[in-house]
Each structure stands twice: as structure tokens, then as C-alpha cells.
């Protein structure tokens, strides 16, 4: 929405206006999953979708660790990761930017 608005207001060709969408939020998601599991975030795949902010959501069906679906990874490693909560990960992903601004 914001990229479209910027394009319309700027008068620039549409090929010269870029929007990041939820790319930053996806990066935060991968980092937070890495923190929660102790694994390298570079081995985390997946996407945050929607608009940046309160309406964003994690597309959990796209999330994987080392190529293994995240839900399956957690189920296969319940003894190690029983305390990992997708609800908490999603909330941390949504609010991490606020923490950075407050610091």
C-alpha cells in the first residue's frame, strides 16, 4: 500500500519505486527462531506476510529449519524445544522493531 502510494505521489516510473513489504519482518522472524532454538538463523526459511505491523502474520506452513518443516522439527525434538511457542515467536517478530526504537 505504501509503495503504491509513494509511486502515485512521486510521479516516477513504477520501476523506480521499491517497497520492502515484510522483508524486514521476515528477517526478524528468522533471527528470533534462531534465538529461541539456538540454531543459526541462516538455516531458517519462511515468510512473514501481510502489511508490516499489527496485521502481519507468519505463514507457518512456509517456515522450516534446515529444510524440515518447523512444526515437524519441533515435534521431532520435543524434549529440547518444548518451551518454544509459535505464538510468542510471532509476537516478538511483531514487536521487535518497537524494542529497537525504545533503546
Automatic annotation (TrEMBL):
Keyword check for Oxidoreductase: yes
PROSITE patterns: L_LDH
Pfam families documented for this protein: Ldh_1_C
Gene Ontology BP, a term: lactate metabolic process
Domain Lactate/malate dehydrogenase C-terminal per the UniProt entry, residue ranges: 22-103
Domain of life: Bacteria
Keyword field: Oxidoreductase
Gene Ontology terms for molecular function: L-lactate dehydrogenase (NAD+) activity
InterPro entries: L-lactate/malate_DH, L-lactate_DH_AS, Lactate/malate_DH_C, Lactate_DH/Glyco_Ohase_4_C
Family: Belongs to the LDH/MDH superfamily. LDH family.
PANTHER family the record matches: L-2-HYDROXYCARBOXYLATE DEHYDROGENASE (NAD(P)(+)), L-LACTATE DEHYDROGENASE
Protein name as annotated: L-lactate dehydrogenase
Source organism per UniProt: Bifidobacterium longum subsp. infantis
